[in-house]
Every structure is written in structure tokens, then in C-alpha cells.
Design goal:
It is a single chain. The protein is α/β, with parallel strands linked by helices. 37% of the residues lie in helices and 20% in strands. It contains 15 helices and 22 strands. The strands form six sheets. It has a seven-stranded mixed β-sheet, sandwiched between helices. Strand 8, helix 6 and strand 9 form a beta-alpha-beta unit. It is globular, with a radius of gyration of 24 Å. The protein starts with 12 loop residues before the first strand and ends in an 11-residue tail after the last strand. It binds NADPH dihydro-nicotinamide-adenine-dinucleotide phosphate.
Length: 497
């Protein structure tokens, strides 16, 4: 097992440049989802701990130790962080697999992407920004971008390192100070990231990490008046709660929420390519991916052939512990989440769906203590069923049929979500036409899942508000100020006396 520097007793929180146990001394076990074993213990922070982190962050912001330094200087810290992520890549990869369960191959991609994200924002903030306007003499008008202040960042467990970095890198690049909360299920790689922040000498109080239950610590971050913005990734239900909570102090809110994304396969698509990407779309990350292609819509003339081939290949997916070299799909993140996914499979059958393959927890070949579920396919589904409408967040896909382009678009847009969507066709015009009709923020033609630090990530409808990554992701963490300068300093003379 990989050792954590500060994990002798527990994972500590990082507040004002110091590693702290929870004020109450409480801890919570952190499990390896492949074995059910306890890996370590994480500090169970309280409202008092969250407040300490918020005040540290506020003091650092007001002192200007980060917001007032040049973009060049901030960028040099971000570049050092990226280099350290590369230096510790093997360790981070193994830790991510141990804590989240994902195969080493997936974890390795996340780690490389995390370093690249810091480098991207280090470069971006040295670009020109702001605007000037021609207005009536003798005024000079301009617009500048400024940090928002103290940013509360709350992240989930499906990409423990990468989701942290998607928020932390642009928030810090923009000159904010941060109060960060990892998921209690997966605090290990975020802790390692904060060890890196300490190692590169980030000024005290700029980046603070507090652990603890979402409804306690997360709620305090979302409600506290000294937090200027809250950026959250996670479930839509929690996102709605955070939005309501943040409304009382009129915080800026950025939300990356769930999805039930359609993957549309037309009869003229390259068949094997479509099957291959459809498998990748749902089973990568064991389906615990916000953009997962969890609804496959297939044109009726190839429906039976597609289901047959998809099922044949789904059955061959090698499910096992993430650190096993042959593993292609890992476990679910927790026992509680395993139960939720199994509940949905049962519910689907009660609603009238048929299990075409999978459908069960895996309890043999040494996997019985882990949280493994077979790659599962549900057919005979109707649009109004809960398994079609709700995010399952596991290796469970529904395959629906459609008769023409119009029906495909209608079904695709027929949920409350609007995160992602894919279209497979060899007709270029049709591919673009259909993608343009999707009410989704992230789309692919003849592909599924690739994402880039340069491109905005986020959803329409109940999949969220705002965007991560790209220039848009930096702007999320910036205020906009207009500055009007009088170039001829004399009274205006509006009033006569
Ligand atoms: P949540 O959305 O509840 O958790 C995400 C983060 O929010 C965690 O850090 C969590 O803390 C925190 N949190 C929870 N409640 C609050 C609150 N009241 N105020 C502030 N922060 C809070 O995810 P769950 O683990 O409960 O998963 C539920 C479902 O959400 C999943 O089954 C899936 O459908 C969806 N989901 C979607 C994700 C996405 O990327 N779109 C990612 C994860 C989940 P804590 O550590 O205590 O859990």
C-alpha cells in the first residue's frame, strides 16, 4: 500500500498553512472499494473547522498575498504544482485507484490531465484581458477582471483528483483564495495535492482544505457570509440544496450536476465504431461519470443487431480490482452507492424492463468484499420509466429504439438533464444537425467522452449552471469591473450653486 506522509493517525485538514486534526478529534474511516478494507482515517471536520478555514482564506485574500501578486508570479506557482504532480504521478495514480477503485489506466489519465490543467491556466492568465471603450471626452472607460474573493469548492468522489483540479487551478489562477472540501469517500489524492501546495510554498491561507460531512461542512461553506462564491460538482439534488443555501448571502454559484446523456446511433453509422464507443460511453469509470452515455438510442432497422453485439461485448468486460493489470472496469465507490445501483436495476425490472445482460453484484473470484456490479443492459424500456429518466451513476445502460431523426431528438431531449450527448452517423450533415438540436452542453459526433482543458464543460437544464475549463472556466472565478477615469479634472457644473 502507498503510504501517506501525514496519515499516521488520520488524514488531516490543511488550514492556514498547517495540518490540523478536527477540533473535536473525530475521524471517519476511508475504504478501498475493491476490498471493503479501511485504508486510512480522515478528519471529520465540524462547523468550527469550516469557519477556521473560511477565516484563513478571508484573511489571506484581504492581505493580498495572492490576489495582489503579478499573474506571472501566480503562474510560476501553478507551473511548479504541475511539475510536482508529474513527479508524483505514479503515487497519485496508485492512491486514486486505492481510494476510488478506478483502474490504474483511468487514474493515470486523470493525473496527467490534472498537471495539464494547472499548466493551461498558468498560461491563460498571462494573456491580455480586459477591454477599453471609446466614450465621450474627457472620459476613458475600461473593464478589468478581478478575483471574486473567497471561493468555496465542493467536489464529489468520482474523479477525486481531477474534479478538485478543475476548480482549484482556475480559482487560484484568477487570484482567489479557496476553501476546498473533498468528498468524505475520497479524500486521499486531494490530501496529496495539498501536500504539494505546501511543498511549492503557496502562501499561508491561500488554499485551505476542510473535511467533514457535506450537510455540515459543505453547508457551512455554502451559507457563510465570508464566502463569496460556491462552486460545486455532484448530484443534482445536492446542487439544488446548495443553490438555495447560497441565495441567502447572494453568492455566485457554479454547479456541475448530473446527467442522463443520450448516445444516438443511426443505421448508417460505422457499426463497430458505434458499439465500441457506446461501451466506452457507459462503462468507463463504471458508469460513475456525469457525462456517461447512459441512454443508447438506436435506429430501429439495426436495433436487434446492435443489442446483440453490445451485449456480447459487455459480457466480456474484465471487471476487477483497479490495481490488477487485466482489469477494464473497477468497483463502485461505496457500499451505499452499490445498493443504490442495485436498487435501480430491481426497479427497472418492476417497471417492465428486461435485463439483457448483467444485473447483479459480483460475489465470486475474490470480489465478494468489494462493491462490484456486472456491466448491465436494460431493454424493453419506455421513456417515462424512472430508469430512463433518473441518473443511476453505475454500469447500467438502457437501450431504446427510434424510427427517425425527429423521434431520436425528441427522446434524447426528453429528460430534465442536459449535460452531454453523442451521435453516430456517416452522414456529416445529419451528425451536425442532430448535435445542434441536443439541449446539452457537451456533444460528440462519432465519438464519446474525450474532453479538453481548453474547452468548456457544463450542462443545460438541470445539469447545472456555468462552465468549467477553458476561458469560460476562468471567467467563472472572476468579477468584472468597469473603471471610468476623468482625464480633465474639473467640476461638472450640473447644479448652479
Ligand atoms: P453529493 O452530490 O451529495 O456529494 C458531492 C459533494 O457534495 C460531496 O463533497 C458531499 O459531501 C457534498 N455535500 C453533500 N451534501 C451537501 C450539502 N448539503 N451541502 C454542501 N455540500 C454537500 O453526491 P453523493 O455521493 O451523495 O451521490 C449522490 C448522487 O449524485 C449519485 O448517485 C450520482 O447520481 C450523483 N453524483 C453526480 C456526480 C457528478 O459528477 N455529476 C458526482 C457524484 C455524485 P460528503 O463528503 O459528505 O458526501
Amino acid at each position: 500500500m502507498v503510504e501517506l506522509k501525514n496519515s499516521v493517525i488520520n488524514l488531516k485538514m490543511y488550514i492556514n498553512g498547517e495540518w490540523k486534526e478536527a477540533k473535536g478529534g473525530e475521524t471517519r474511516p476511508v475504504y478501498n472499494p475493491a476490498t471493503g478494507e479501511v485504508i486510512t482515517y480522515a478528519s471529520e471536520g465540524s462547523v468550527a473547522d469550516a469557519r477556521a478555514a473560511i477565516f484563513a482564506s478571508r484573511n489571506a485574500f484581504e492581505a493580498g498575498v495572492w490576489s495582489d501578486i503579478s499573474a506571472q508570479e501566480r503562474a510560476s506557482y501553478l507551473l511548479k504544482i504541475a511539475d510536482k504532480i508529474d513527479e508524483y504521478a505514479d503515487e497519485l495514480t496508485q492512491l486514486e485507484t486505492m481510494d476510488n477503485g478506478k483502474p490504474l489506466r483511468e487514474a493515470g489519465f486523470d493525473v496527467a490531465d490534472a498537471a495539464s490543467c494547472f499548466r493551461y491556466y498558468a498560461g491563460l492568465i498571462r494573456n491580455p484581458d480586459g477591454q477599453t471603450y471609446h466614450v465621450a471626452d474627457p472620459m476613458q472607460a475600461m473593464v478589468v477582471r478581478e478575483p471574486i474573493g473567497v471561493c468555496g469548492l465542493i467536489v464529489p468522489w468520482n474523479y477525486p483528483l481531477l474534479m478538485s483540479v478543475w476548480k482549484i487551478a482556475p480559482a487560484l489562477a484568477a487570484g482567489n483564495t479557496i476553501v476546498f472540501k473533498p468528498s468524505e469517500l475520497t479524500p486521499v489524492t486531494p490530501t496529496k495535492l495539498f501536500e504539494i501546495f505546501e511543498e511549492v510554498g503557496l502562501p499561508k491561507g491561500v488554499a485551505n482544505m476542510v473535511m467533514g460531512a457535506g450537510p455540515v461542512v459543505g453547508h457551512e461553506i455554502a451559507s457563510h457570509p465570508e464566502v463569496d462564491m460556491v462552486s460545486f460538482t455532484g448530484g443534482t439534488k445536492t446542487g439544488k440544496h446548495i443553490m438555495k443555501t447560497a441565495a441567502d448571502t447572494m453568492k455566485k454559484v457554479s454547479l456541475e450536476l448530473g446527467g442522463k446523456s443520450p448516445n444516438i446511433i443511426f443505421a448508417d453509422a460505422d457499426f463497430e465504431t458505434a458499439v465500441d464507443y457506446a461501451l466506452f460511453g457507459i462503462y468507463a469509470g463504471s458508469g460513475q461519470v456525469c457525462s456517461a452515455g447512459s441512454r443508447i438510442l438506436v435506429e430501429e432497422s439495426i436495433y436487434d443487431k446492435f443489442v446483440e453485439r453490445f451485449v456480447e461485448r459487455a459480457k466480456n468486460i474484465q471487471v476487477g480490482p483497479g490495481d490488477h493489470p487485466k482489469t477494464e472496469m473497477g468497483p463502485l465507490v461505496s457500499k451505499q452507492h452499490l445498493e443504490k445501483v442495485l436498487h435501480y436495476i430491481e426497479l427497472g425490472q418492476k417497471e417492465g424492463a428486461t435485463v439483457a445482460c448483467g444485473g447483479n453484484r459480483i460475489v465470486d473470484n475474490g470480489l465478494e468484499n468489494g462493491y462490484f456490479v456486472q456491466p448491465t443492459v436494460l431493454v424493453d424500456v419506455k421513456q417515462e420509466m424512472r430508469i430512463v429518466q433518473e441518473e443511476i451513476f453505475g454500469p447500467v445502460v438502457v437501450i431504446q429504439r427510434f424510427k427517425d431523426e425527429e423521434e431520436a431528438i425528441k427522446l434524447a431531449n426528453g429528460t430534465v438533464y442536459g449535460l452531454a450527448g453523442g451521435v453516430f452517423t456517416n452522414d456529416g450533415a445529419k451528425g451536425l444537425r442532430v448535435v445542434k438540436k441536443l439541449r446539452s452542453g457537451i456533444t460528440w459526433v462519432n465519438s464519446y467522452h474525450p474532453t479538453y482543458n481548453e474547452a468548456p464543460w457544463g450542462g443545460y437544464k438541470q445539469s447545472g449552471i456555468g462552465r468549467s475549463l477553458g476561458t469560460f472556466g476562468l471567467e467563472e472565478f472572476q468579477e468584472i469591473k468597469q473603471i471610468n477615469v476623468n482625464l480633465q479634472v474639473e467640476p461638472i457644473g450640473w447644479f448652479s450653486n
